[in-house]
Amino acid sequence: MTRNPQQLWHPGSLTGTDSIAEMIAAKDLNNLYRASCFFTEIERYRAFCALYAVMRLVDDCVDAVLSEGLNSDAVPHTQRILVAWEHAVSAAMADQLPSSAEVQATKEPRAADVLDAFGRGIARFPIEPSLWSAFFDAMKKDLERDRFQTFEEFLHYAHGATVAPTTIYLYLITAEQGTDGVFRTPADFDLQGCGHNLGLFAYVSHVLRDLRQDLVTGEKGLVYLAGDDMAAHRVTEATLLEDLGREHASPALKALVEDLAGRADTWRRAGEAQLTPLKEQLPADRMFVLRLIIRLYMATLEKIAACDFDPMTEHHLLTDADKERLALTVAAETSAAGI
After folding, report:
1. Where does the chain have alpha helices with state H?
2. pLDDT value at position 46?
3. How many Cα atoms within 13 Å fall on the side-chain side of residue 119?
4. End-to-end CA distance of the chain
5. Is position 3 within any domain?
6. Residues 135 and 185 in one domain
7. Is the separation of the CB atoms in 260 and 204 below 8 Å?
8. Does residue 136 sit in the same domain as residue 266?
9. Do 162 and 140 share a domain, yes or no?
10. Pair (275, 285) in one structural domain
């Protein structure tokens, strides 16, 4: 890996229905898309865009409802849309064309094109169907509740909301092409276990990063902090709103954020340990992508810690300059490791 990494792909790199999936995957140029632009193989980048586009469309559909509140009349309508997407994805995974009725029921004008790209992507990268089922289950749960009473309840939800997508992404990074043209993960790599640990690490980082934004979403805000954790640290929804209003976290909230950041780091360490078998197997570009996405979430937690675990000021958010410097640092580290 060169010390000056180059993103080989960008919006507009693909053609046909793949270009539609690419446009959706590239929306807001988030961390996952940016990191995936460093894949050297177009087949891997194309599959990422196709699979991620489906998740983005589904997630955006749910987010639109959450922004209005769960009392919205749009909830039952959106539930039907999720069922249509799930059926269409299941058909594609079975190497079948989704019915025109299912495609129309998604209420998404780009659905046919995205599902075409998805079908070709999933044929080359046959992701375990249960991961997609878990993802759709979590999206349905989002339409039923906006609070978690216990951390165990949060973890159950996170299995579909973050562990499944993370495991899918790890599959895209680590799978090797066989003589039949199909990409499969190495037999000595614990894909599911690593996806669990890195998924939870990334999601808790995401929750802490977006805490302030979530509190102003919808009619009464979204709270992804578990009720039992809040109670243990004597944090209430009233104190959260007080902290939000004065743009400064209370000592109680800071203590809770520090606690959760510590748990996230424990999952990160466990996940990185499970990556050990890959160190001699992955080529430089994919090891760089893997390291970069992990480091982006690490940097988020580090910046939160540098702000005295206060996510209410938004000084903890990574800037584009932060991300560019991080990419150069990871490239140098990858090069120094001889990968």
Report:
1. 16-25, 31-36, 42-66, 74-93, 100-105, 111-124, 129-142, 151-158, 164-174, 191-209, 211-215, 227-232, 237-246, 251-274, 284-306, 320-336
2. 97
3. 17
4. 7
5. no
6. no
7. yes
8. no
9. no
10. yes
Q: Do residues 281 and 186 make contact, with C-beta atoms less than 8 angstroms apart?
A: yes
H or E stretch covering 53 = helix 42-66
- Structural domain boundaries, residue 136: 10-144
Give the predicted TM-score (pTM) of the model: 0.93
Q: Is the pLDDT of residue 336 over 70?
A: no
Of 87, 283, 157, nearest to 165 by C-alpha is: 157
pLDDT of residue 1: 53
Neighbours of 59 (CB within 10 A): 17
44 located within any domain? yes
Beta-bridged to residue 148, according to DSSP, are 226
Adjacent-strand bridge partners of 176: 184
Tally of domains in the chain: 2
We report the CATH number of the domain holding residue 193 as 1.10.600.10
- The answer to whether residue 338 scores a pLDDT higher than 70 is no
Q: Contact 5/328 with Cβ under 8 angstroms?
A: yes
32 within a domain of the structure (yes/no): yes
Residues 334 and 190 in one domain: yes
In angstroms, rounded to a whole number, what is the distance separating the alpha carbons of residues 130 and 134?
A: 6
Q: Is there a single domain that holds both residue 51 and residue 140?
A: yes
Helix (H, G, I), strand (E, B) or coil at 226: strand
Which residue, 287, 279, 283, 289, is CA-closest to 38? 289
Between 243 and 221, the higher pLDDT residue: 243
**Does a structural domain hold residue 211?**
yes
Q: What would the two tokens of residue 246 be? A: 């004065």
Residue whose entry in the numeric block shows the structure tokens 């993960």: 185
**What does the pLDDT look like over 72-83, one tens digit per residue?**
678 888 999 999
Rounded Cα distance, 258 and 274, in Å: 25
